[in-house]
Write a structure and sequence with these properties.
This protein is an alpha+beta fold and 446 residues long. It has 19 helices and 17 strands. 47% of the residues lie in helices and 15% in strands.
Amino acid sequence: MIPNEVIERVRRAADALALIGEHIRLEQRGSGYVGACPFHAGGEPSFTVYPAERRYVCFGCGARGDVFDFLCRATGRPFGVVVREVAARVRIAVPRDRQGAADGGRDERAELLGACEAATVHWQKRLRGPEGEPGRAYLAARGIDAAAVVAFRLGYAPDGWHDLQSALCRAGVSSEVQHAAGLLAAKDGARRKLYDRFRGRVIFPVSDARGRVIGFGGRAIADEAGAKYLNTPETLLYKKSRALFGLNWAAQAIRKTGRALLVEGYFDAVAMHQAGFESTVAPCGTVVTLDQLALLSSVGCREVVLLFDGDEAGHEAPLRAAAVMLKVGLAVRVARCPRVAEDDSDPARILKDRGRSEVRETLEAAQPLTEFLIAEAIERHGGEGGARASVEETLQVVRELMPHVLATPEGLMRTKFERAIAHRLDVHIGSLRAAVQREAANRSSG
């Protein structure tokens, strides 16, 4: 591993403007230099290099970082290879190895980032090549256009057991690093029997807020038995409970509007961006977590709109997410996807079959999460509510809503929630609050 102090010396000595300028055309504008971003389609001058700060940022797709990040992403080379190449140009000697480094964790992260970037570039090439025809056909059938494929850096992993492993080893990324990055799996846990984790799948790179690839989601395109989706396992870089697919592309729109659209899957997120709903993100195969909501808050989100599938599972998803979402200070609304067909009720299908206006109308009809929870509980226990409901039905609804009330922080939000429940059920607010306090006391003593 390259010592951290050597990496910093090379970074300071490197001419970021010149190195990046070898790959894209840049023109000076104020203290920065702008050009068309090489990492997403469009051609607008959204890419800016700041020479004094030795960094770049794209205000279109969210890619950002230093000269090493840029070269890894632009060339597909691993981090260590890029550092050594730049070091040679600025005549700084780099030791071949490093033992017992205190900051080895940072170097390990850099190696894993380099491996993920190299894998992304490899799978992009595979999608464009002759072996990528099944992937291209599948994406086209799902309504994903060429511009979205480029913007989201989608790829294709062929069926071979060692396609990626062999390519990355030739590029200088060891099998051990590939395994640590979650790119390779081990047969029966034996490290010596490594093989490509992703095979016969369309690949969705998952990036952090800086646009660096940290993991992947793979969608099987064959009808064979097995997992429809396969995700990177937990690694030093990738924790699925702390990742949101599309956040690096959605961050600018979220900052501008204060609103994030949360969909279930990768295809939904890509299709929504393609249709102009640029504040869309998706959890990576998880129920919404506090860490993911914190990520949204960090980019200026004040309201989340849940747009889940119209099937039974999508209908239950807001109920599963409620316990977490009620704990934070974000406004939350729930939009119900209409059912297009028996199995075609997700946002991507609706956009493809019915168009953007249908999704826009669905979003406009979204209701506050607390109202959704009350309506759902009433519907499940008699569908009446109010004075016409029986005592038994009212008690059942109260019992179902009690965990949601207790998940809501004390104060204005809980008070409003309690009043809404009391109004819909036609019960005295004092009686309802007394029941809430008894339940809270029981939980704390239990």
